[in-house]
Request: fold
Amino acid sequence: MSNSIVATVYSGVIRDVIDNVRKDFDENGVDVSVLGELEKLWEQKIRNAKVAPWEANGLTGEDHNQNNQNMNGGSSNSAHYMQQQSLQQIQAQNDPNLKAAASLPSLAVNNMHTNHNNEGRPQPYIKNGNIQLTAQSSPTSFPTSSDISNSTPINNQADDQKIYHQHHQNLHTMMGQQDEFGNPLSEKLIPRGGGENSANSSPLPEFTTRSEPSFVDNDDINSDLDDTDDEETNAEGEETQNIILCLYDKVTRTKNKWKCQLKDGIMSVNGRDYLFQKGNGDFEF
Amino acid sequence: MTHYYELYRRSSIGVALTDSLDELIKNARISPQLAMKVLLQFDKSIAESLENKVKHKATFKAGHLHTYRFCDEVWTFIIKNPNFKLEHESLPVDKIKIVACNSKKPGEAENKN
Reply:
Protein backbone atom coordinates (compact mmCIF):
# COMPACT_ATOMS: atom_id res chain seq x y z
CA MET A 1 0.00 0.00 0.00
CA SER A 2 1.47 3.28 -1.02
CA ASN A 3 0.72 4.99 2.21
CA SER A 4 2.57 2.48 4.33
CA ILE A 5 5.42 4.92 4.44
CA VAL A 6 3.22 7.45 6.20
CA ALA A 7 3.45 5.82 9.60
CA THR A 8 7.20 5.54 9.30
CA VAL A 9 7.62 9.14 8.32
CA TYR A 10 5.19 10.37 10.93
CA SER A 11 6.79 8.48 13.76
CA GLY A 12 10.13 9.74 12.54
CA VAL A 13 8.83 13.28 12.71
CA ILE A 14 7.44 12.73 16.18
CA ARG A 15 10.75 11.39 17.40
CA ASP A 16 12.67 14.18 15.74
CA VAL A 17 10.50 16.90 17.22
CA ILE A 18 10.53 15.38 20.68
CA ASP A 19 14.30 14.99 20.63
CA ASN A 20 14.85 18.50 19.43
CA VAL A 21 12.60 20.30 21.86
CA ARG A 22 14.02 18.55 24.90
CA LYS A 23 16.41 21.40 25.46
CA ASP A 24 13.57 23.91 25.22
CA PHE A 25 11.69 22.01 27.89
CA ASP A 26 14.82 22.03 30.02
CA GLU A 27 15.33 25.73 29.57
CA ASN A 28 11.75 26.40 30.53
CA GLY A 29 12.07 24.27 33.60
CA VAL A 30 9.41 21.91 32.37
CA ASP A 31 9.72 18.37 33.59
CA VAL A 32 10.77 15.74 31.08
CA SER A 33 7.69 13.72 31.93
CA VAL A 34 5.61 16.40 30.25
CA LEU A 35 7.59 15.88 27.11
CA GLY A 36 6.81 12.20 27.32
CA GLU A 37 3.20 13.07 27.80
CA LEU A 38 3.24 15.24 24.72
CA GLU A 39 4.76 12.44 22.71
CA LYS A 40 2.15 10.02 23.91
CA LEU A 41 -0.75 12.38 23.26
CA TRP A 42 0.52 13.22 19.85
CA GLU A 43 1.04 9.65 18.82
CA GLN A 44 -2.31 8.64 20.18
CA LYS A 45 -4.11 11.35 18.30
CA ILE A 46 -2.48 10.64 15.01
CA ARG A 47 -3.22 6.95 15.43
CA ASN A 48 -6.79 7.59 16.34
CA ALA A 49 -7.16 9.67 13.24
CA LYS A 50 -6.45 6.43 11.38
CA VAL A 51 -4.90 8.18 8.46
CA ALA A 52 -2.23 5.57 8.05
CA PRO A 53 -1.78 1.87 8.75
CA TRP A 54 0.26 2.02 11.91
CA GLU A 55 -0.36 -1.65 12.55
CA ALA A 56 1.57 -2.61 9.48
CA ASN A 57 4.63 -1.09 11.01
CA GLY A 58 4.32 -2.88 14.28
CA LEU A 59 3.82 0.39 16.03
CA THR A 60 0.46 -0.32 17.53
CA GLY A 61 1.33 -2.07 20.76
CA GLU A 62 -0.58 -0.77 23.70
CA ASP A 63 -2.94 1.45 21.81
CA HIS A 64 -5.40 -1.20 20.75
CA ASN A 65 -8.10 0.20 22.94
CA GLN A 66 -8.11 3.55 21.29
CA ASN A 67 -8.09 2.02 17.88
CA ASN A 68 -10.97 -0.23 18.67
CA GLN A 69 -12.97 2.62 20.00
CA ASN A 70 -12.66 4.27 16.69
CA MET A 71 -13.55 1.31 14.58
CA ASN A 72 -17.19 2.23 14.38
CA GLY A 73 -16.30 5.52 12.75
CA GLY A 74 -14.70 3.81 9.81
CA SER A 75 -11.67 5.53 8.44
CA SER A 76 -12.84 5.70 4.88
CA ASN A 77 -15.97 7.61 5.65
CA SER A 78 -14.80 11.14 5.94
CA ALA A 79 -17.95 12.55 7.42
CA HIS A 80 -17.84 10.03 10.20
CA TYR A 81 -14.22 10.69 10.57
CA MET A 82 -14.77 14.37 11.14
CA GLN A 83 -17.56 13.74 13.55
CA GLN A 84 -15.50 11.31 15.46
CA GLN A 85 -12.70 13.69 15.66
CA SER A 86 -14.82 16.33 17.22
CA LEU A 87 -16.33 13.80 19.56
CA GLN A 88 -12.90 12.83 20.65
CA GLN A 89 -12.13 16.45 21.09
CA ILE A 90 -15.08 16.95 23.33
CA GLN A 91 -14.21 13.94 25.36
CA ALA A 92 -10.61 14.92 25.56
CA GLN A 93 -11.45 18.43 26.56
CA ASN A 94 -14.13 17.75 29.05
CA ASP A 95 -11.93 16.43 31.78
CA PRO A 96 -9.50 19.27 32.01
CA ASN A 97 -12.28 21.75 31.65
CA LEU A 98 -14.11 20.32 34.55
CA LYS A 99 -11.03 20.59 36.65
CA ALA A 100 -10.14 24.03 35.52
CA ALA A 101 -13.61 25.39 35.94
CA ALA A 102 -14.01 24.06 39.42
CA SER A 103 -15.68 27.23 40.57
CA LEU A 104 -18.30 27.09 37.87
CA PRO A 105 -18.44 23.48 36.97
CA SER A 106 -21.95 23.16 35.71
CA LEU A 107 -21.79 26.39 33.80
CA ALA A 108 -18.67 25.29 32.08
CA VAL A 109 -20.11 22.01 31.00
CA ASN A 110 -23.36 23.47 29.90
CA ASN A 111 -21.62 25.97 27.82
CA MET A 112 -19.55 23.32 26.21
CA HIS A 113 -22.70 21.74 24.98
CA THR A 114 -24.66 24.75 23.98
CA ASN A 115 -21.78 25.98 22.02
CA HIS A 116 -21.77 22.98 19.78
CA ASN A 117 -25.31 23.69 18.89
CA ASN A 118 -25.12 27.42 18.60
CA GLU A 119 -22.14 27.83 16.45
CA GLY A 120 -22.55 31.54 15.90
CA ARG A 121 -22.68 32.44 19.54
CA PRO A 122 -19.81 33.60 21.64
CA GLN A 123 -18.40 31.03 24.00
CA PRO A 124 -18.45 32.38 27.48
CA TYR A 125 -16.88 30.81 30.53
CA ILE A 126 -15.91 27.58 28.92
CA LYS A 127 -12.48 26.93 30.11
CA ASN A 128 -11.39 28.47 33.29
CA GLY A 129 -14.47 30.02 34.72
CA ASN A 130 -12.44 33.14 34.63
CA ILE A 131 -14.31 36.33 34.03
CA GLN A 132 -11.51 37.88 32.12
CA LEU A 133 -11.76 35.00 29.78
CA THR A 134 -15.22 35.93 28.75
CA ALA A 135 -14.13 39.15 27.29
CA GLN A 136 -11.57 37.34 25.26
CA SER A 137 -13.19 34.20 24.17
CA SER A 138 -16.25 35.91 22.89
CA PRO A 139 -14.62 37.89 20.17
CA THR A 140 -12.22 35.16 19.14
CA SER A 141 -14.90 32.62 18.68
CA PHE A 142 -17.42 34.92 17.16
CA PRO A 143 -16.92 34.92 13.44
CA THR A 144 -18.12 38.30 12.41
CA SER A 145 -16.46 40.26 15.12
CA SER A 146 -13.22 38.37 15.22
CA ASP A 147 -11.42 40.67 12.88
CA ILE A 148 -12.16 43.65 15.03
CA SER A 149 -10.74 42.02 18.08
CA ASN A 150 -7.45 41.05 16.65
CA SER A 151 -5.29 43.11 18.90
CA THR A 152 -7.05 42.63 22.19
CA PRO A 153 -6.35 38.98 22.80
CA ILE A 154 -2.74 39.37 21.83
CA ASN A 155 -1.95 41.81 24.55
CA ASN A 156 -3.82 40.04 27.23
CA GLN A 157 -2.57 36.63 26.42
CA ALA A 158 1.02 37.53 26.44
CA ASP A 159 1.56 37.24 30.14
CA ASP A 160 -1.33 35.20 31.38
CA GLN A 161 -1.15 31.70 30.10
CA LYS A 162 -4.17 30.66 32.06
CA ILE A 163 -6.27 32.66 29.76
CA TYR A 164 -5.00 30.57 26.99
CA HIS A 165 -7.52 27.88 26.39
CA GLN A 166 -7.71 25.27 23.76
CA HIS A 167 -8.56 27.51 20.89
CA HIS A 168 -5.91 27.42 18.31
CA GLN A 169 -6.41 30.89 17.21
CA ASN A 170 -4.72 31.83 20.41
CA LEU A 171 -1.78 29.74 19.48
CA HIS A 172 -1.74 31.49 16.21
CA THR A 173 -2.08 34.89 17.67
CA MET A 174 0.96 34.02 19.69
CA MET A 175 2.56 33.32 16.38
CA GLY A 176 1.90 36.84 15.36
CA GLN A 177 3.86 37.92 18.38
CA GLN A 178 6.60 35.53 17.76
CA ASP A 179 7.41 37.54 14.73
CA GLU A 180 9.24 39.97 16.89
CA PHE A 181 11.28 37.16 18.28
CA GLY A 182 12.98 36.56 15.01
CA ASN A 183 10.39 34.60 13.22
CA PRO A 184 10.15 35.96 9.71
CA LEU A 185 7.02 37.88 9.06
CA SER A 186 6.48 35.98 5.90
CA GLU A 187 5.44 33.01 7.96
CA LYS A 188 2.13 34.68 7.94
CA LEU A 189 2.03 34.12 4.25
CA ILE A 190 0.85 30.63 4.83
CA PRO A 191 -2.61 31.68 5.46
CA ARG A 192 -4.85 28.83 6.28
CA GLY A 193 -2.75 26.73 8.54
CA GLY A 194 -4.45 28.00 11.60
CA GLY A 195 -7.83 27.68 10.08
CA GLU A 196 -7.76 23.99 9.57
CA ASN A 197 -6.12 23.29 12.84
CA SER A 198 -8.74 25.11 14.70
CA ALA A 199 -11.47 23.52 12.75
CA ASN A 200 -10.32 20.18 13.96
CA SER A 201 -9.55 21.15 17.48
CA SER A 202 -12.68 23.05 18.17
CA PRO A 203 -15.80 21.07 18.74
CA LEU A 204 -17.79 23.54 16.73
CA PRO A 205 -19.07 22.50 13.31
CA GLU A 206 -16.16 22.56 10.97
CA PHE A 207 -17.18 24.99 8.32
CA THR A 208 -17.93 27.77 10.67
CA THR A 209 -14.87 27.32 12.76
CA ARG A 210 -12.70 27.19 9.76
CA SER A 211 -13.49 30.75 8.97
CA GLU A 212 -13.13 32.23 12.41
CA PRO A 213 -9.52 31.60 13.21
CA SER A 214 -8.49 32.60 9.74
CA PHE A 215 -9.70 36.04 10.45
CA VAL A 216 -8.00 36.09 13.74
CA ASP A 217 -4.55 34.94 12.88
CA ASN A 218 -4.26 36.74 9.61
CA ASP A 219 -4.86 40.39 9.41
CA ASP A 220 -4.72 42.48 6.28
CA ILE A 221 -3.67 40.69 3.17
CA ASN A 222 -4.31 37.14 4.11
CA SER A 223 -7.75 37.63 5.47
CA ASP A 224 -8.85 38.44 1.98
CA LEU A 225 -7.53 35.15 0.74
CA ASP A 226 -9.08 33.22 3.55
CA ASP A 227 -12.33 34.91 2.97
CA THR A 228 -12.74 33.66 -0.55
CA ASP A 229 -11.55 30.29 0.55
CA ASP A 230 -14.16 29.98 3.19
CA GLU A 231 -16.97 31.14 1.01
CA GLU A 232 -16.03 28.45 -1.35
CA THR A 233 -15.95 25.88 1.37
CA ASN A 234 -19.31 26.96 2.59
CA ALA A 235 -20.82 27.16 -0.82
CA GLU A 236 -19.66 23.77 -1.91
CA GLY A 237 -20.24 22.03 1.34
CA GLU A 238 -18.52 18.73 1.97
CA GLU A 239 -15.46 17.12 0.61
CA THR A 240 -12.85 19.66 1.44
CA GLN A 241 -11.10 17.11 3.60
CA ASN A 242 -9.42 16.01 0.43
CA ILE A 243 -6.48 18.28 0.54
CA ILE A 244 -2.92 18.36 -0.61
CA LEU A 245 -0.43 20.46 1.27
CA CYS A 246 2.72 20.82 -0.71
CA LEU A 247 5.29 23.09 -2.29
CA TYR A 248 5.36 24.10 -5.92
CA ASP A 249 8.35 24.33 -8.14
CA LYS A 250 6.56 25.70 -11.11
CA VAL A 251 3.06 26.50 -12.20
CA THR A 252 2.49 27.32 -15.85
CA ARG A 253 -0.49 27.95 -18.02
CA THR A 254 -1.08 27.92 -21.75
CA LYS A 255 -4.58 29.02 -22.59
CA ASN A 256 -6.75 26.86 -20.39
CA LYS A 257 -4.13 24.19 -19.80
CA TRP A 258 -2.34 24.28 -16.51
CA LYS A 259 0.73 22.39 -15.49
CA CYS A 260 2.16 22.30 -12.05
CA GLN A 261 5.19 20.71 -10.59
CA LEU A 262 4.66 20.01 -6.96
CA LYS A 263 6.83 18.51 -4.29
CA ASP A 264 7.01 17.48 -0.66
CA GLY A 265 3.32 16.88 -0.36
CA ILE A 266 1.06 15.56 2.30
CA MET A 267 -2.26 14.48 0.90
CA SER A 268 -5.32 13.69 2.84
CA VAL A 269 -7.66 11.77 0.60
CA ASN A 270 -10.78 9.95 1.74
CA GLY A 271 -9.58 9.95 5.31
CA ARG A 272 -6.16 8.59 4.54
CA ASP A 273 -2.85 10.30 4.30
CA TYR A 274 -0.39 9.91 1.47
CA LEU A 275 2.97 11.47 0.95
CA PHE A 276 4.77 12.31 -2.23
CA GLN A 277 8.11 13.73 -3.09
CA LYS A 278 7.15 14.91 -6.53
CA GLY A 279 3.80 15.51 -8.07
CA ASN A 280 2.87 16.62 -11.55
CA GLY A 281 -0.46 18.00 -12.39
CA ASP A 282 -2.12 18.71 -15.72
CA PHE A 283 -5.46 20.36 -15.55
CA GLU A 284 -7.85 22.15 -17.79
CA PHE A 285 -9.69 25.11 -16.57
CA MET B 1 17.00 29.44 12.24
CA THR B 2 16.09 28.89 8.71
CA HIS B 3 12.57 29.53 7.84
CA TYR B 4 10.11 26.73 7.39
CA TYR B 5 6.54 26.86 6.26
CA GLU B 6 3.75 26.44 8.73
CA LEU B 7 1.72 24.90 5.96
CA TYR B 8 1.98 21.35 7.25
CA ARG B 9 0.47 22.21 10.58
CA ARG B 10 -2.90 21.64 9.06
CA SER B 11 -2.06 18.11 8.06
CA SER B 12 -3.30 15.34 10.29
CA ILE B 13 -0.01 14.99 12.09
CA GLY B 14 0.19 18.74 12.57
CA VAL B 15 -3.33 18.90 13.89
CA ALA B 16 -2.60 16.04 16.25
CA LEU B 17 0.38 17.92 17.60
CA THR B 18 -1.45 21.21 17.95
CA ASP B 19 -4.28 19.49 19.77
CA SER B 20 -1.86 17.78 22.10
CA LEU B 21 -0.09 21.02 22.83
CA ASP B 22 -3.39 22.68 23.49
CA GLU B 23 -4.30 20.06 26.01
CA LEU B 24 -1.04 20.54 27.82
CA ILE B 25 -1.41 24.29 27.80
CA LYS B 26 -4.93 24.04 29.05
CA ASN B 27 -3.76 21.97 31.98
CA ALA B 28 -1.00 24.48 32.61
CA ARG B 29 1.67 21.90 31.95
CA ILE B 30 3.48 24.02 29.40
CA SER B 31 3.41 27.63 28.34
CA PRO B 32 2.12 28.77 24.96
CA GLN B 33 5.60 30.03 24.25
CA LEU B 34 7.01 26.58 24.67
CA ALA B 35 4.26 25.19 22.48
CA MET B 36 5.32 27.64 19.80
CA LYS B 37 8.82 26.28 19.93
CA VAL B 38 7.52 22.78 19.51
CA LEU B 39 5.49 23.86 16.50
CA LEU B 40 8.47 25.57 14.95
CA GLN B 41 10.46 22.41 15.42
CA PHE B 42 7.62 20.50 13.84
CA ASP B 43 7.68 22.79 10.80
CA LYS B 44 11.31 21.95 10.38
CA SER B 45 11.07 18.24 11.04
CA ILE B 46 8.16 17.61 8.74
CA ALA B 47 9.67 19.64 5.92
CA GLU B 48 12.95 17.79 6.17
CA SER B 49 11.29 14.41 6.42
CA LEU B 50 9.18 15.03 3.36
CA GLU B 51 12.19 16.20 1.47
CA ASN B 52 14.50 13.40 2.46
CA LYS B 53 12.48 10.35 3.33
CA VAL B 54 9.69 10.33 0.82
CA LYS B 55 10.37 9.09 -2.68
CA HIS B 56 6.91 8.61 -4.06
CA LYS B 57 5.77 10.33 -7.16
CA ALA B 58 2.26 11.44 -7.83
CA THR B 59 0.48 12.54 -10.96
CA PHE B 60 -2.81 14.25 -11.50
CA LYS B 61 -4.05 14.27 -15.02
CA ALA B 62 -7.06 15.40 -16.93
CA GLY B 63 -8.69 16.89 -13.93
CA HIS B 64 -10.94 19.82 -14.31
CA LEU B 65 -9.40 22.81 -12.66
CA HIS B 66 -12.35 24.27 -10.89
CA THR B 67 -10.67 27.13 -9.08
CA TYR B 68 -7.24 28.60 -9.08
CA ARG B 69 -5.84 31.31 -6.95
CA PHE B 70 -2.45 32.80 -6.43
CA CYS B 71 -1.97 35.04 -3.50
CA ASP B 72 1.02 35.81 -1.33
CA GLU B 73 3.08 33.24 -3.16
CA VAL B 74 0.57 30.55 -2.35
CA TRP B 75 -1.24 28.65 -5.07
CA THR B 76 -4.59 27.16 -4.32
CA PHE B 77 -6.28 24.83 -6.76
CA ILE B 78 -9.50 22.97 -6.57
CA ILE B 79 -9.52 20.05 -8.95
CA LYS B 80 -12.57 18.09 -9.87
CA ASN B 81 -12.33 14.46 -10.85
CA PRO B 82 -8.61 14.21 -11.28
CA ASN B 83 -7.15 11.03 -12.60
CA PHE B 84 -4.90 10.77 -9.68
CA LYS B 85 -2.08 8.32 -9.28
CA LEU B 86 0.49 7.72 -6.63
CA GLU B 87 3.22 5.34 -7.70
CA HIS B 88 0.89 3.92 -10.35
CA GLU B 89 -1.81 3.23 -7.86
CA SER B 90 -4.99 5.08 -8.66
CA LEU B 91 -6.80 6.96 -5.98
CA PRO B 92 -10.36 7.80 -6.76
CA VAL B 93 -11.14 11.35 -5.74
CA ASP B 94 -13.98 13.50 -6.91
CA LYS B 95 -12.60 16.74 -5.67
CA ILE B 96 -9.37 17.79 -4.13
CA LYS B 97 -7.90 21.01 -2.98
CA ILE B 98 -4.24 21.73 -3.43
CA VAL B 99 -2.52 24.31 -1.33
CA ALA B 100 1.01 24.88 -2.47
CA CYS B 101 3.67 27.20 -1.16
CA ASN B 102 6.65 28.31 -3.15
CA SER B 103 9.39 25.72 -2.97
CA LYS B 104 11.84 28.57 -2.98
CA LYS B 105 12.04 29.71 0.58
CA PRO B 106 10.24 32.99 1.23
CA GLY B 107 13.47 34.92 1.49
CA GLU B 108 14.60 33.98 -2.00
CA ALA B 109 11.15 34.03 -3.46
CA GLU B 110 11.12 37.76 -4.00
CA ASN B 111 12.83 37.71 -7.37
CA LYS B 112 10.68 34.94 -8.70
CA ASN B 113 7.06 35.12 -9.49
About this structure: Strands of chain B lie at 57-71, 74-80, 83-86, 89-91, 95-102. Chain B has a mean pLDDT of 86.
